Each structure stands twice: as C-alpha cells, then as structure tokens.
Amino acid sequence: MTTPVAGAELTAELRRGLDTLVGDLPGRSGDLAFDEPWELRAFALVVAAYEAGGYPWGEFQQALIASIRQWEESPAATRAPWSYYEHWVRAFEAVLGERGTVDRDAVEVRTCDVLATPKNRNHHEPHYEPIAVDPARTTSIPEAP
C-alpha cells in the first residue's frame, strides 16, 4: 500500500510530470499563463484525456503540428487570428474524432449552439461557483437531514 503524497509534494510532482510532458509551451512573461479561461480548460482537457489513457501523446503532438501547419499554409487574408490554444482544441477534436471517441458532427452541432448563445449570458467569463443554466431558473439544493 502506498502512502498518499502530501499536497505540496503532489503539486510539485504533477508539475514536474506536466513540464516533462508538454515541454516549452509558448508562455507569457516566462510563465505558463493563459490569456483566457477557456485556454486553461482546453489545456487541462487535453492533458487529462492523455493521462487517462485516451491516446498517445505523440498522436496529439502530430495533430497539433498539422493544425498549425494548415493555419500557416492558408492565405493570410482569410485565416483566423493566431491562437495557440485554438490549435490545441482542433488537434484534440481531430484525435478524438479519428479514434471514434467523439462524434465530429455532434461536436459541430454543440459548438454552433454555444456560439449562438448571446455574449450577455456570461458564457465567456470564468465561474467559480455553481450557476444556473438559465438565470430565470434556479433550484435550491435540499439540505441533508
């Protein structure tokens, strides 16, 4: 039986493993920082799926390279602005789609639904507390007896 690792040691151990896995990501101010909350979520999803045995890391790296190459080779006048983590999302979708883990059509439908949601619904802001899907619909959680 193994003894649980103390919190700080676990965090340091996970950080070393993550640093080894992802290498030199483009950082801001010399640190692994994210400009938007969704970038952190994309990063975390990719790493968590890999760690759960969802795919080999090299497969994701190749999909990421392919996404970036496709962006670089597209005409400058028609390509979207540069976003490193958008390429993470595209590579992640490609890997999961090729493996049959997710249905690409279902992802596309859900993406269109999310993008059609008005910005004033706050879906672009981080939420650290549970929130109602619709502000007009709230439910209370019954207290434990």
TrEMBL record:
Question: What Gene3D superfamilies does the database record attribute to this sequence?
Answer: Nitrile hydratase, beta subunit (1.10.472.20)
The highest taxon in the source lineage is Bacteria
Per the database record, which ranges form the Nitrile hydratase beta subunit-like N-terminal domain? 32-121
Any stretches that span the bilayer, and where are they? none
Annotated region (Disordered), positions in chain: 119-145
A Pfam family this protein belongs to? NHase_beta_N
Q: Which InterPro entries match?
A: CN_hydtase_beta-like_N (IPR049054), CN_hydtase_beta_C (IPR042262), Elect_transpt_acc-like_dom_sf (IPR008990), Nitrile_Hydratase_acc_put (IPR023808)
Return the NCBIfam families for the record: nitrile_acc
Instruction: From the Swiss-Prot or TrEMBL record, give the protein name.
Output: Nitrile hydratase accessory protein
